[in-house]
Design goal:
about 60% helix, mainly alpha, 2 domains, 9 helices, about 260 residues, two-stranded antiparallel ribbon, elongated, 4 strands
Length: about 260
């Protein structure tokens, strides 16, 4: 059986008086204005950000000549709610670009996870995630070149220069596949956050295999293998979700 809550207005007033000084430090002296309570200012702050971001999105859509399609409510509502808390100008641009990309009839980017992801990362994490994309592209270019060089070798068109380039590319590709990447400027907790969100994946630690010869008797020798994990942390690779997420948040490139 439930009971109705009976909270007197005087109780609420006393509660507001207790936090008034603290709120003034958080929100500024406008809290003293008549009728402007904390919730009013927060609502205004969020509304102002929403208008600013939507204005940016409108301008971007117009500049890119995007043919707009409707964004589903379950995507648009959390997008506007989360973006309204963003004060950073550069991050507001990311939200605006996301709106334009989700509304682009020529793109298939409508997914409700994108607003959630953008609301859970910092500008620094976003920029460093972009560096992982650049490194991944360089890796893919090396991988394509490696296959081309391998085809030359199979056709007996190999020479010293081809073999040397193949060996270099092979080492680069193997190193990425085994070690991954790391970028400067990301703290451990930021790596953990990007990994938690599924934007980065950490590669398994390398295992060092050593063969040890053990003499059992004069005639028989045994070879035992000892496996040791490396002490250094392994690197990371950006995930398909990470690549798609950045596409949703970056300005659409114009043709030509």
């Amino acid at each position: 059986m439930t009971k109705d809550l009976n909270i007197k207005s005087s109780t609420i007033e006393k509660g507001l008086e207790l936090i008034k000084d603290f709120v003034e430090k958080l929100l500024g002296p406008t809290i003293d204005e008549v009728g402007l309570l904390m919730s009013d200012k927060i609502k205004y702050f969020r509304f102002k950000n929403q208008v600013k971001i939507l204005s940016k999105a409108k301008e971007s859509v117009k500049d890119k000549g995007i043919d707009i399609k409707e964004i589903p409510t379950k995507i648009l509502v959390p997008l506007l709610e989360n973006s309204s808390l963003e004060e950073n100008e550069e991050m507001q641009n990311k939200w605006a670009f996301m709106i334009g990309n989700l509304a682009d009839s020529k793109q298939n980017l409508q997914n409700q996870v994108f607003p959630y992801l953008l609301s859970h990362i910092s500008l620094n994490e976003f920029e460093k995630l972009s560096e992982f994309v650049q490194q991944e592209r360089a890796y893919l270019e090396d991988h394509i070149k490696l296959l081309e060089q391998f085809q030359k070798i199979l056709r007996d068109e190999d020479d010293n220069s081809t073999n040397n380039e193949y060996d270099t590319l092979r080492k680069n590709v193997d190193n990425v596949q085994q070690v991954g990447f790391k970028v400067d400027g990301l703290e451990g907790f930021e790596y953990s956050n990007l990994q938690r969100l599924g934007l980065l994946k950490q590669l398994p630690k390398k295992i060092q295999i050593e063969e040890v010869e053990v003499e059992i008797n004069e005639n028989i020798k045994d070879h035992s293998i000892e496996a040791l994990y490396t002490i250094d942390d392994s690197g990371y690779r950006i995930t398909p979700l990470g690549i798609k997420f950045l596409s949703a948040c970056n300005e659409k490139k114009t043709n030509g």
